[in-house]
Specification:
single chain; 9-stranded antiparallel β-sheet; binds 6-O-phosphono-beta-D-tagatofuranose
């Protein structure tokens, strides 16, 4: 295990909850943020003079091996249920594993973190491939993430991924996503799983779970009740997922208060389903997301 880097000004190692999780508190002239070592998961981000960018459940589990509901969970190396083994964790294992701090630096008040996760016996039991994943996060006026996946094995492997971002809303029933009109959509709630074309903006009317593939993955989440928006600028990503659990599903989620569905929505950027990635041996793939609050 390499020696962790020294922490620059604006970065502190902190406990998360009281079950042994740890993470880092970011506090710079540009922003404050909180990151969990488990999952390399940004839990909170607030640029100076702005509203919080991300939503974190007040009932989120903060315990080893349990997914943390909120912020930006990283779904990797699969999205959704495991393709063939229902015993496997949903959305892959990356959000459940501890990522190592590989580098940290403060540059012109922007704090840059580099977190790494690489294959070990535990991951190979779940997914028999040698990989190294590096998550680079920039904390400035905006929040930016880059995931780099390297195939360190001798055979190609396929994976899917998503930055599963949770955003706060004044009222999810008065919110919409612009930028997906005309895209092909797979409604996860449609038993027939028919693909259809999205007409107009995506709205959250009760439980909403839609996967858009083959898109540019840039879109805008508008919070109409607050007249504000978050622009998602993605590169290397061709899928967007829109999710709100609605009242019935939320009532079944122990880590989410019953009314919380009205104050949040997920707009996720990645490569899922037919956009999944095949990575040859020795190759590296990069996926990036920048979140900009507007106005
Ligand atoms: O991204 C949408 C989705 O796949 C939904 O189907 C729902 O399961 C959501 O992710 C949350 O998943 P999680 O495992 O974090 O509870």
């Amino acid at each position: 295990m390499s020696t962790p880097p020294s922490l620059p000004d604006g970065l502190r190692d902190v406990p998360l909850g009281d079950n042994g999780l740890r993470g880092w508190q970011v506090d710079t002239p540009l922003c404050r943020a909180l990151v969990s070592a488990q999952g390399g998961q940004v839990l909170a981000f607030q640029a100076r003079g702005r509203e919080p960018l991300l939503w974190l459940s007040p009932a989120a589990h903060l315990a080893p091996g349990k997914a943390i509901r909120g912020g930006i969970p990283l779904c990797f190396p699969w999205f959704g249920p495991h393709p063939s083994d229902s015993r496997q964790p949903a959305h892959g294992f990356a959000r459940l594993r501890e990522w190592q701090l590989a580098a940290a630096r403060l540059d012109a008040d922007v704090l840059h973190l580099e977190l790494a996760l690489q294959a070990d016996a535990g991951t190979r039991d779940l997914w028999p491939h040698d990989f190294r994943a590096v998550l680079r996060i920039g904390f400035g006026h905006h929040l930016s993430l880059q995931l780099e996946v390297a195939n360190r094995g001798s055979a190609a492997f396929d994976f899917s991924l998503a930055f599963h971002s949770y955003f706060p809303l004044v009222d999810s029933c008065q919110a919409r996503i612009e930028g997906l009109a005309g895209s092909i959509c797979l409604d996860q709630l449609d038993p027939a799983r028919h693909q259809r074309r999205q007409h107009g903006p995506v709205r959250f009317e009760g439980e909403t779970d839609r996967i858009f593939t083959g898109v540019s993955a840039d879109c805008l989440l508008l919070d109409e009740a607050r007249d504000s928006a978050v622009r998602l600028l993605a590169s290397g990503c061709r899928s967007v997922i829109a999710w709100n659990p609605g009242p019935e599903k939320t009532a079944r989620l122990v880590d989410m208060p019953a009314s919380a569905w009205q104050g949040m929505a997920c707009v996720e950027s990645g490569n899922v389903g037919e956009d999944s990635v095949s990575l040859p041996p020795g190759a590296v793939a990069r996926f990036a997301l920048t979140l900009q609050q507007e106005p």
